[in-house]
Amino acid sequence: MTTPAVLILLGPPGAGKGTQARMLEEKFGLVQLSTGDLLRAAVAAGTEAGKQARAVMEAGELVSDDIVIAILRDRLGEEDTARGVILDGFPRTTVQAEALDTLLAETGQKIGAAVALEVEDAAMVTRISGRYTCGDCGEGYHDTFKQPATEGHCDKCQGTEFKRRADDNAETVAQRLQAYHAQTAPLIAYYDGQGVLRRVDAMGDIGEIAGALGEIVAEAC
Ligand code: AMP
Fold this sequence. Notes:
This protein has 9 helices and 8 strands. The protein is about 50% helix and about 15% strand. Strand 5 (about 130-135) and strand 6 form a beta hairpin. The strands form 2 sheets. A 5-stranded parallel beta sheet has the order 2-3-1-4-8, with helices on both faces. It is of the alpha/beta class. Adenosine monophosphate binds near residues 35 and 56.
């Protein structure tokens, strides 16, 4: 990896962006930047941005571009991102995509690839409704698809506290899917126009999807 590059993961909620970003982070040393995680941290810390974002997130709508862009700009300014980043959940609007182009022009980084994780909406509600994470290390689990090998103990860190996101319920998921199609899906054409779009079928096996993404990173980032 010569030039520190940026990998963008595009896809609706439940497509596996977070899971895949974590795997790529481990394998390639890139830094995962999830605006959802950054916003949840701001809500938990009770910052001004967090206070404004909270109700919007609980409703499954998009937080304002100004807030999200400011949060991302701050995070991109931290030293570790010079190794290259995986953007998970950003950009989600054309305004954000344009702001990212401007930010990257300032830092000298470039978009290696924008990967559209292609999934069927119908499967996303099931995927999201059953998911939870380890409260200590963040490892992801699912009621049906991936339970810890020893019940109640995280496979990775042996933690015993697990948590579910407040917005991972059926009503909010429907709103989040709608927001994705209305505001984020147009970015697929945006990045196609920039010549960096790649498409990956994300309905199958997690390991196979990771393999396809790994090839893209090795080639483009
Ligand atoms: P995620 O963890 O990516 O599913 O994001 C959870 C929620 O945070 C979303 O439903 C939005 O309310 C908010 N959010 C995360 N990233 C963005 C973004 N780039 N733009 C606007 N809202 C965002």
